[in-house]
Design brief:
Oligomer: single chain
Helix content: 40-55%
CATH topology of the largest domain: Rossmann fold
Structural class: mainly alpha
CATH superfamily of the largest domain: HUPs
Strand order of the largest sheet: 1-2-3
Distance between the termini: 32 Å
Bound molecules: tryptophanyl-5'AMP
Number of helices: 13
Number of domains: 2
Amino acid sequence: MEERKKIFSGIQPTNTPTLGNYLGALQNWVKLQEDYDCTYSIVDLHSITVRQDPQRLKKQIYESYTLLLAMGVDPERSTAFVQSHNCHHAELSWVLSCFTQFGELSRMTQFKDKSAKHPENINAGLFTYPVLMAADILLYQADLVPVGIDQKQHLELSRDIAIRFNNIYGDVFVVPDAYIPKTTAKVASLQDPTKKMSKSDENPNASISVLDDRDTIIRKFKRAVTDSDTEIRYAPGKDGINNLMSIYSAVTGKTYEDIEKEFKGKGYGEFKLAVGEATADILAPVQSEYARLSADKKYIEECMKNGAEKAFKTSRKTLQKVYKKLGYIVL
Ligand code: TYM
C-alpha cells in the first residue's frame, strides 16, 4: 500500500478553543484524517511564553485534549498527544535554533505583537517560539500543516529552516506546506471585525468559545459589531457582515450567493439570529460528546499515554537522523 502523506498541527491550551480555531483549523484536522496520516498536539510547551496559572493550565490541557476527541480526532487512527509528553520537541528545537537567524525571528509579526502586549515579560521563549514550532512540524516529516492565516509566517520560517538544514546535510526534513482554508482562514472578532477572533481576547463578547451554550452563542452574535448599512451582502469594507457571512457559510455549507438570496429584504437582526442558531447547531454535538468524554478521565489519560508513545517513536527516528548528521554519537 502506498504510504499516506503526513500531517502535523498543534493548538495551544491557553483557553477554550474559539469558533476561529474550530473553523480555521480544528474542523480540517478532523476531515484530513480520511486521507492523511495525522499527528495532532496540544502544544503546552508553547503556552508558557505568557505566564500561566499551573492549576488552570492543567485543567486547560485536559479540556483541549478532550475537545479534540469530541470534535472527531480519532486517537486510534491518528496520533493525538500532549507536547510536553514527548521530550524530542525541546531537543530538536535547540538544534534548529542554531540554524535560525536572529534577524529572521525579529521579523515575526506575532513576536512584535505579543511583545507590545506584554512589555513586562518579553522573554527569550517568546522570541524563539517559532523555532519550537518548526521542531514540532519537522519531527513528524509533515507534508501539510492545517492552520489559520495567522500562522502562515511561522510556517514559512519552518520551511526556510528545513531547506537550510537540508542544503547542508542532505535530505533530512520534508519541507512542509501550509493548508489554509479559503473563507475561514481568519475568523474575525465579533467586537472588532478588523482583528482576528482570539482565545486570549479580554472581552468575552468578542469570541465564541466552542463550549459556549446556545443562548450565549446567540446573544454574542446579536451583539456583533456591524456597519450602519442594512443589506446582507458580501462587499469590501463591510468587515462585520463579511465575517458573519463567512461563518454562516462555513457552518451551513451555503455559498455567499445563497446567503444573499436567503436574506434579501431582511435586516441584520434576523441574519445575526440565523448565524447564532446555525453555529449553536454545529457545536451542539461537540459539546455533548465533550460532556460524555470528560466524565472518563481514565480513558482520556490512556489516550494521552498511547498518543505520546506513538509520537515519541515517530519523532525519535527524525531526531536520531539529525544527531547522526551533526556528528553526534547515536548508540
Ligand atoms: P493557536 O493555538 O493560536 O491556534 C490554533 C489554530 O487555530 C488557528 N486560528 C484561527 N483560524 C482562523 N481564524 C481565527 N480567528 C483563528 N485563531 C486561531 C491558528 O491559525 C491555528 O492553526 N503556534 C500555534 C500552535 C502551534 C502549531 C505548531 C501549529 C505550535 N506548533 C505546529 C501548527 C504546527 C498557535 O499558537 O496556534
